[in-house]
Design brief:
This is Transcriptional regulator. It comes from Methanoregula formicica (strain DSM 22288 / NBRC 105244 / SMSP). It holds the Pfam family HTH_24. Keywords: Membrane, Transmembrane, Transmembrane helix. InterPro entries: ArsR-like_HTH, WH-like_DNA-bd_sf, WH_DNA-bd_sf. The structure is a single chain. It contains twelve helices and eight strands. A hairpin with a 2-residue loop joins strand 7 and strand 8. By secondary structure, it is mostly helical. The strands form four sheets. It has a two-stranded antiparallel sheet with strand order 1-2. It has a two-stranded antiparallel ribbon with strand order 3-4. Helix 5 packs across helix 7. The radius of gyration is 34 Å and the shape is elongated. The chain has three domains: 80 residues, no CATH class; 61 residues, Arc Repressor Mutant, subunit A; 97 residues, Arc Repressor Mutant, subunit A, CATH 1.10.10.
Length: 287
């Protein structure tokens, strides 16, 4: 991890140095150098004391026209000042890159170490919130932590940069998870869809009753056919559900990679058994 980050930082530094070397000549061309002119009439006050008035008797009247001065004609001290001023951003980046900890003389420059990442109270709170609520989205984090949108976004990016968390995008939006090898990508995706009550209901029904039709799903869940189709399309988009047509009937199944996972999520298995009983009642109505 450290070698990878160092390699990335080295490439970034090399790019910045190259950019500076290429841009410096362009800056010189654009400015056209410096132009020195006599100080006639620079100040309307006290010209007799501070300046020689411009007139035909002025000792500078016969001087040639002012000429531009190239960078190479400037004194060394001026060149050094310009070089330092022009490379301030690069110097600040180098300090941040190679000097650990806080730099009190340069406000805002901090080089974080992974072990120090959760020392920040707000970042630690966000991390714990994600760990305890897998699949949580930024709006939910803001509500649960009482932090601002910008604050949450900043700390989420830090946690992502240091690989403490991962973000997963689904048809229902983005959710955040703790970066753990115990969670598969399929389980994370299923968790995101299970946050929606209707989709959790549909997943439970399909887990207990593979091959069920849209009409049967709507009858058990108590929702309309178009609503079933809308939620099924989102589950299908993220490869959780597949549809197989047999004649005029379309059968719905949980895809192979998600079979069994639904039962590992809190409440899915219990919910599925309740819907299964409801299904039996709907398919075998009392005469």
């Amino acid at each position: 991890m450290g070698v990878k980050n160092l390699a990335g930082n080295t490439r970034t530094l090399a790019f910045l140095v190259l950019a500076f070397v290429l841009v410096l000549p362009v800056m010189a061309i654009e400015t056209g150098g410096y132009e020195v002119r006599p100080a006639y009439s620079l100040s309307p006050d006290d010209t007799s004391r501070d300046f020689i008035p411009a007139s035909s008797t002025s000792p500078f009247a016969g001087e040639p026209e002012p000429q531009p001065i190239a960078y190479s004609d400037l004194p060394l001290a001026v060149l050094l000042v310009l070089a330092i001023a022009g490379t301030c951003t690069l110097q600040a980046y180098l300090l941040r890159l190679f000097v650990p900890g806080n730099l009190p003389l340069i406000s805002g420059l901090v080089k974080l170490h992974r072990k120090e990442l959760l020392v920040n109270a707000s970042r630690n709170l966000i991390y714990r919130t994600i760990r305890e609520n897998p699949g949580i989205n930024p709006s939910e984090i803001e509500r649960m932590t009482n932090l601002t949108n910008k604050n949450v976004a900043y700390h989420l990016n830090k946690l992502l940069d240091y690989h403490l968390i991962v973000d997963v995008k689904s048809a229902n939006g983005k959710g955040y998870f703790r970066n753990s090898s115990t969670d598969s990508s399929s389980e994370r995706m299923l968790r995101l869809h299970s946050k929606n009550p209707t989709e959790r209901m549909i997943i439970a029904i399909l887990s207990s009753n593979p091959g069920i039709s849209r009409k049967e799903i709507g009858s058990i869940a108590g929702i309309s056919g178009p609503s079933v189709s809308w939620h099924i399309s989102r589950l299908e988009k993220d490869n959780i559900v597949e549809k197989i047509r047999e004649g005029t009937i379309v059968h719905h199944y949980i895809k192979e990679g998600f079979k069994g996972l639904s039962e590992t999520l809190t409440g899915i298995q219990q919910t599925g058994s309740v819907y299964e009983e409801s299904l039996r009642s709907s398919l075998n109505p009392v005469e």
